[in-house]
Amino acid sequence: MSDIQHFIVATAGHVDHGKSALIRALTGTDPDRLPEEKLRGITIDLGFAHLDLPSPQATASSFRLGIVDVPGHEDFVKNMVAGVGSIDLALLVVAADDGWMPQTEEHLQILTYFGVRRAVVTLSKADLTADEVGAVAAIRERLQDSPFAEAPIVPASVVTGRGLAELKVTLAQVLSETPPPRDIGKPRLPVDRVFTLPGAGTVVTGTLFGGTLRRGQSVIIQPSGKPARIRRIQSHGRDVEASGPGTRTALNLADVDAVDGVHRGDVVTLAGLGKPSEVLDVLLDISPRASRSLKGGVRVRVHHGSGNVAARVALGSGRELAAGGRAVAELRLEGPAFVFAGDHFTVRDWSEQHTLAGAVVLDPDAARKDFRSLERLSWLERAAGAVEDPARFLSARIAYAGAARRSDLLLKSRFSDEDLAAAVDRLVRDGALVAAGDIVVDAAAWQAATRKAVEIVDGAHRVHPEHRGVPLTDLRRALHGALPLDELFDPLISSLCERDFVREGSFVRRASHRVELPEPLRAAGAKLAETLSLKPFDPPSRKELAPDVVSLRALRFLIETGEAVEISTELVMTVSSVAQATTLIRSFIRGHGPATVSELRQALGSSRRVIVPLLEYLDRTFVTLRQGDKRTLR
Question: What is the DSSP track for 308-375?
């Protein structure tokens, strides 16, 4: 045998149908550990055992089963639900002398709601019936229209030992056709037992799924967020360095108190996997076999993992969901819960008397305010059909959100990083998404923002051909809201510049755009150029030069095209005048040494109104250097 595959098996069935006795006969372990259970002769809380099975194929992996024995009495259904949330196979037990009973049916529905799709059925107490064939046929009829319609049914008796060996072979056969639990790098251990050991401290147990936990690793207790450290790990009674998915796991935790720090229903996980949820958008499902409907606004108990939390139900449409119905809904939790997209859970009534529905999480971080918007409901309907497909689910999610960072992409989901990376690559290749650095964008949203940017730039060129382009700050402001994330602005500009656009400093323009004065401004531009040339070293003030809107636009054109230089807010000179003045000033200082403002004004034949800002401009452009009240050359 090459290695060992780990699976979790849980019992299900009516009280007093022999579930615990069957586990004891199969494993040699009595799962009833509480004195009250032994006194009353019924299972009250979860019990645990393990079983090693050889594979039906000699060269394949053997199986190590963690077995969860659940109570069958109607008063302890909430404890039963805590044990079947993360199992790979159900062992449904129906007694030959009783047949199908109320808790058999309720347990079947609960298994279905949790997404369990594989089961082995045992006709227990087979020694107590004279019509075994009829009893098996009756069970088969009850299983019709359920996920377990084709499940094998094995008659067995713990009294005579008949069928036990066949049951083990059947379990191994079904498991050989069952994909092993996946390690997606997101370990979660719903805590079902907490106790203290002398010399060791706090110990928690649970069914580990989603990833691997290692000795010495730092972990987080959710939903409280309390940190802890794994001091020691046991799996199936053995000390191990690491425990993986599909194993019953015990963790000896340091830095956490067994009374106040961790409880049944908490989840041991890693930091960085998101925060607890308060509002869940889900797909609700009521079995056609159910006897009750579910009304909107009702208060319920949401059973997830090993815990449960109170919630209010908001239906997406209608006021009631009848048996056999399916609809998107919102669950507004009254306490936090650590939940992922794709998780299954069961909804029971507030009094804990009836199982009402099952659900799968579509959005673990939903918001109440927009639940019934058409856009939101449309996305939820689309996501509901893609829970198991990372590419389709991701596509639906980003189509609604517009964009998402790769590092945050469906972090709280049952998809691995590799699943999501492959899905992104596929969607980018297919044109459904656009990759922009760490951000992936819905292609339709990206194209809409691109079209708007192009329209803004082209419109600016038509209205203001004298401008060299659109200031990036103005374009960013205009695109606010058109881009799903503000960080997408620079990638969008880069994308434009890979096509027909050019970025020049703080402006962007079409590559084919050439600045020119429109017909109404050409006369004003020519007049400005002539006026500035008449007195090159003593031009009029800016207000005198451009007293109206038309001349202001023409002046801005001359400055942007480099024909004129903006010396200061009040002074503009032609570029040739500035060059000529610079040459004269340099020549004067070289010939006379450091010079004052007055000396340079006289050399230029200018006024103090012009020479002071001109010298400050030459200081800024590293031509001259001010030393006291004189200027030298740099």
Answer: EEEEEEEESSSSEE-TT-EEEEEEEEEEEE---BT-EEEEEETTSS-EEEEEEEEETT--STTTTSHH
Give the N- to C-terminal CA distance of the chain in Å, as an integer: 85
Q: At residue 522, what is the residue type?
A: R
DSSP string, 179-231: PPPPB-S--EEEEEEEEEETTTEEEEEEEEBBS-EETT-EEEEETTTEEEEEE
Spatial separation of the C-alpha atoms in residues 372 and 296, rounded to whole Å: 13
**Mean predicted confidence (pLDDT) in 431-444:** 94
Determine the Cα–Cα distance for residues 528 and 13; give it in Å rounded to an integer. 96
Q: What is the mean pLDDT of residues 369-384?
A: 90
Region of 190 please: left (phi>0), alpha (psi -120 to 50) or beta.
Answer: beta
CB 85 within 8 A of CB 190: yes
Tokens of 573: 């000179």
Q: What is the pTM of this model?
A: 0.81
Inform me whether the pLDDT recorded for 505 exceeds 80.
yes
Rounded-to-integer distance, Cα 205 and Cα 375, Å:
42
Q: Which amino acid belongs to residue 319?
A: R
pLDDT digits 0-9 by tens, 181-221: 999 999 999 999 999 988 888 999 999 999 999 999 999 99
- pLDDT tens-digit map of 471-484: 999 999 999 989 99
